[in-house]
Amino acid sequence: MDEPIFKLPEIIDNENGWGPSPAMLPEKFRDIPYAPYSKADKLGRIADWSAPEQKEKETAGRTRASYRYRDQYTAYGYGASSAFTYTHAEDEASFSVVDNRSAAQKKASYRTTGGTKSRPGTRNPQRQQRNGQYQRLGMTGRGTTGNKSSARARDASVNVGPEWQVLEEIEFNRLSKLNLDVDEGEDISSHGFLYYYDKSYDRVNTKTEKPLLPNERVRYFISTSKDPIIEQLAKDDEATVFATDTILSLLMCAPRSVYPWDIVINRTGNKLYFDKRSNDYVSVNENAADPPVETGDKDNINSPIALSMEATIINHCFAMQVVNESEKYEFEKPNPFASSDDLEFMTPCAYRYRRFDLGISEEEDVRLIVRTQLDSVVKTSGGDSLITIKALNEFDSRSQGAGGALDWRQKLDTQRGAVVATEMKNNSCKLARWAVQSILAGADQMKLGYVSRANPKDNRRHAILGTQYYKPRDFAAQMNMSVSNGWGIVRTVIDLCMKLPEGRYVLLKDPNKPVVRLYSVPPNTFEIEDPLLDEGDELEEEDDEVIETR
Questions:
Q1: Which residues lie closer than 8 Å to 419 by C-beta, 6 or more apart?
Q2: What are the residues facing 244 on neighbouring strands?
Q3: Cα–Cα distance for residue pair 292/304, rounded to 1 Å
Q4: CA 48 from centroid of its chain's CA atoms
Q5: For 159-169, what is each residue's pLDDT tens digit?
Q6: What average pLDDT does the segment 352-364 reach?
Q7: What is the distance between the terminal CA atoms of the chain, rounded to a whole angstrom?
Q8: Is residue 380 exposed (0-12), middle (13-18) or buried (19+ Cβ within 10 Å)?
Q9: I want to staple 364 with a disulfide (CB 3.0 to 4.6 A). Which of 159, 359, 421, 534 is the partner?
Q10: 34, 37, 74, 411, 509 from 43: Cα distances, Å
């Protein structure tokens, strides 16, 4: 019997790096292309059979990286050679995984409670800084269906007239790739006064909750082009673009939005004015996987419209209740929208007009002035700190559209991180906008309140369960919100409009797709409404019952 023979294979050593040595490459491998690699390369999943097909579609358009993509990296050698790229000639959209498990098993496997996967402070922001370099987009693509968050098709925020002309259509995934670094804004002027924050509300918890009190004071909504301060600044050529913080935050956080919206853009001479037709209402669970659905029942207190109205009133009342009216903080100039006789009936707030330079080079003149708003001032060891005040609200954790929210009265004191994480998931757009508004205003802190219904079946009585401070930029970082990306979006829209002739334009969010469209409209299209329309009157027109009970 012959003895077994073991022969070592031939080893071709490359002294200059990894991979085969070109000088000693065997003849049989000469014509095969080689893609470089390194030890740092990481292999992701070849296939993920754990996620259903629908979930794959729902998460495909998100700007933040999902947990399913945690193994994917762009490493050395990526894209260096397309020789090994395989492209199927047919559409594979019809491919599906055969799953013979019962419906109950699937529900148990795929259901998440929400808010338990991450806590504030554990996620690092994945910003793509360009060091002042601005990435431009070619706006020729058409929109896709994107995330499907509701079976019911939503209506647009405004009816598109037959004479409206589509000029551009921009997909959200393209907006999320824009970046522009912008320096801190400079104060132009400050108006109004503030009351100091009542620190007793910092001691409120679920065991010592306080009822939310009604408040009859009003807040004027004045759009950009009707603002007398902005009108004067435009005459003095202090800037070329003008907006308010609510409008600008909507534009900067556009890729996170799901509900429809529109912005009116007026081009007058070399000036641009970003306007809103009416005041913004506060959305509820807009970004939830299963958001509230409009059923057509006007008595449904958990419909999107009813919840939005409720949240708007809660924010209005909460901001007034947590301040102490015994001491004022005066700014250099009076409120520009009311006489001294009206101040008694107005919500105290301060307006700060700030200028930002969006130019990429010194030759460019792209200065933007934004009217920002502050809600209160708090005394600290370092002096007075200007703050904004917002309120999250809980309606019914068991109802449709709750988005897996935890019961606040049971979890808020012991698991606040999980509560906040769930809110960040379900209200990504709203919270990002609040952070951006605070940053634009130069606020030192953002005060966040937690307000819940006294009874889940009654939307007219509420209780304050707690409060919390955040630094605006830290809060934005926890949400993976890139302010640079927001400025890139603003600059893109400005560039598009500056190339157009004088006139009126509308930037419209598609009600059911992650797409915005820029329309050219006739000059007299929905003339900007009366600016001296207070929040109370506007809400009363929408829902007499809610206002009456407050």
A1: 115, 405, 406, 408, 411, 412, 450
A2: 371
A3: 6
A4: 29
A5: 998 999 999 99
A6: 91
A7: 101
A8: exposed
A9: 359
A10: 17, 11, 10, 39, 38
